[in-house]
Structure formats: C-alpha cells, structure tokens
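Regression check, zinc ion case 149:
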Amino acid sequence: MSAARARHPSLHTVPAEGKPPELLASRCGECGHLAFPAARFGCPSCGAAPERSAPAAIAGRGTLEAFTIVHRTFSRAFPAPYAVGTILLDAGVEIRAVLAPEDRADLETGGRVESCLVPSGEDEDGNALVDCRFRPVPGGEARDGGGAA
Ligand SMILES: [Zn+2]
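Current build output:
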C-alpha cells in the first residue's frame, strides 16, 4: 500500500500517520505578511511581487472563533450535515475551514482546534487521497509558542 496523497497538494503537507498536517503558506519578504493559501500573485498586504514571497509551512493549530452547521450540501465530498468554522491560527492567519469533530457537541467557540487528515476518495490510478480538516483538541490544550507575532 502506498502512502496517501493530498487531494489539494498546494495547501498542506501529508506527514506520517497520526501527525497533524502543516499548512503551506507564504511570507512576504517586504512586509512579513503571512498568507494562507500561499500568495501566488503577490502580497495581498503590500502588493510586493510574488518573487518576493517565500514558502512558509505553519502549524495547523488555532482557536475556533466561530462555526456553523451546514444542513444542505453542494457536493458529494461534503455530505450534510457538516461543520465549517473561522479559525485564528496561532501563526496569526485567520482561515475558514471544514471541521471534522468526532462529535459536533465538542465544537466550542473559543476552543482549541488542530489540523487533521481525512480520507478523500481516490485518484484516477486508485491511490488513496486525503484532505485537511480541523478538529477540537481533546482537553483544550494550553496555547503554546509564546503568543502572537
Ligand atoms: Zn508584503
């Protein structure tokens, strides 16, 4: 069995089993702005050319700022009901992401969340694909890393 591949390889890593994926961001060499997804067309903050940005892998850890449960679906990839949320990553970037709690009752505004990989079908060659989701961290986990930049 070969290792699973990312359905969206430009967005996150696929680490060894059980480890959370890192998010593939970019950091502007002019102003330091961190962008996720990576800013392919230049810095969204200062307008610097794309060549001035460097790849930056950031931890998929943060605080769930808000969430909602979606009861109608637009895709077989997202069977309803499912949850989406706004997450402030510890790296300082706010993102919107699909949540994958073991139990939706575990979702809590202000709670800690972490990236995880979920099965996401197969490619045309039959290789397993994975996608990135966020789930509550059991027990809440103390914020680490020394605070915001
Ligand atoms: Zn910039």
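Comparison notes: DSSP finds no helices and nine strands in the chain. Strands lie at 5-6, 22-28, 34-35, 53-59, 61-70, 82-89, 94-99, 112-122, 128-136. No diff flagged against the previous build.
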